[in-house]
Write a structure and sequence with these properties.
The protein has 6 helices and 3 strands; from the N terminus they run ββαβααααα. It is mainly alpha-helical and 125 residues long. A 3-stranded antiparallel β-sheet has the order 2-1-3, covered by helices on one side. 46% of the residues lie in helices and 10% in strands.
C-alpha cells in the first residue's frame, strides 16, 4: 500500500501487520490530507513498477522535476540563482510552469546542482 501526503509532499510504502498499517494511516489522516493506493498483489508477485509508465510521471512537469532536484540538494531558489547565474524570479517561473525550461537553462542549473540536465525533462518514448 502506498500513502501519499500532498502537502508537504511525502510518499510512504506500508506493509506488515494490518493493525500496524491501520495505526500509521490513522496518524497520517489526523494531520494531513492523504491518498491511499492499495496494492492487491501477493507477496510473491513482482512489486516493481516502471515509473515512466505511471500517471504521476506523465503529469510531472519539468518545473516540478527542477524543484525536486533543487530541494534534494538543499538549495533555496536564491542560492541556486546565484550558483547558476539565472535570476531567482526566472527559476520561480520555471518551477511554477509560467515559463518553459530551456535546454540552455537546464544545462546551467544541472551544472550548479551537479546533475545531468536531462533529469529535468520527462523522457518521451
Amino acid at each position: 500500500m502506498l500513502a501519499v501526503v500532498k502537502k508537504p509532499r511525502i510518499e510512504i510504502s506500508l506493509s506488515g501487520s494490518e493493525s500496524a498499517v491501520s495505526e500509521i494511516l490513522e496518524f497520517l489522516r489526523s494531520r494531513y490530507s492523504i491518498s491511499v493506493f492499495e496494492d492487491d498483489r501477493t507477496a510473491d508477485e513482482e512489486a516493481s513498477v516502471n515509473a515512466f509508465e505511471t500517471d504521476f510521471w506523465r503529469q510531472t512537469t519539468p518545473g516540478a522535476l527542477l524543484r525536486g532536484y533543487r530541494l534534494k540538494h538543499g538549495f533555496t531558489q536564491e542560492q541556486l540563482a546565484r550558483k547558476s547565474g539565472i535570476g531567482q524570479t526566472v527559476l520561480s517561473a520555471y518551477e511554477n510552469g509560467r515559463r518553459p525550461l530551456s535546454q540552455r537553462a537546464a544545462i546551467k542549473i544541472g551544472e550548479a546542482l551537479g546533475e545531468n540536465p536531462e533529469k529535468f525533462f520527462r523522457h518521451v518514448k
